[in-house]
Amino acid sequence: MKSELQKSLKAAFPKTIPIITGYLFLGSGFGILLSAAGYPWYWTTVMAVFIYAGIGQYVAVNMLVPGLSLINVFIVQFTLNARHIFYGISMLERFNAMGKLRPYMIFTMTDETFALLCSAKAPKNVDKKWFDFFIAFLDHIYWICGCTLGGVIGALLRFDTTGIDFIMTSLFVTIIIDQWKDAKDHLPVIIGGVTSLICLLIFGADRFIIPALLALTAGLLIFRGKMEQNAAEKEEAHAE
Amino acid sequence: MLSNTAIIIYILVTAAGVFATRVFSFLLFPAGRQTPRVILFLGNALPCALMALLVVYCLKNVSIPTYPHGLPELIAIAVTAGLHLWKRSTLLSISVGTVLYMVLVQMVF
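Structure tokens for the assembled complex are given below, as produced in the milestone run.
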């Protein structure tokens, strides 16, 4: 049994190497951000273990203010991370077959782990379940290390951190550019930007996010026909 | 700053919000049933729309009418985007963009 686990771990580790730099970097960015907000390093570890979501944790630093509404926090986190719902759809059968490992696999399903699970296949002589588990587990460990590292760096280095929260903005800008290049249709990001700006102007900085979430979902549904038509046309052009 | 109990509650609620998205499909779509098409559509379209919302969210406190008129944000975003279009390295774009922004707000403006 023990050597079985070792074999799975040995097969899984190389697959996760590409994630190490990214998670250490983004994790420590979060840690520095939280410590710049005045919180001791161990909260970064706790959040990395129990929340384990990049964008979610970055936004969580922002929302962590006195007088916050917990219902708002839940709704914002749920909507921000709504894409996980669709990862879940594609992992239904795979995780359902994993028995006692299933809850942990569901809990640790990040963008990166999902991507790795989609592409990585266990070698023939290796237990598939434990191979998948170690991919998820190692990624989780990298994230915890990255966040903690950032928390400690932020606490040790007493430099002027004014403006460090721009790390969030620049992260989202790079994601938009990557998505823009990969996407077949640019309508969703345009709808998202326009509805958010309108809601910001109407509702103000402190209360625009929930209206914006509703408005952009409505906007997407209104233009659904148009987008599906675009997709169909692209496919046709591709076929010709 | 919040008390430790408040932080723990906050972390639990945040974690619950995130976990709810991860477990959602497993509760809603038992094995073997067809997923509604509108859900699949939103799954494709939402991530892009949400990123635009997040950028607006990050910039929500920038005031254009008052000095420095959102210039540090504009410059840093332009450099981040330009660098990313050129080199396609997330780590590089974010590092340069953030350091540049910190320099701009601390020393220039």
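Chain B touches chain A through 67 residues (CB under 8 Å). The radius of gyration of chain B is 20 Å. Further analysis is deferred to the final report.
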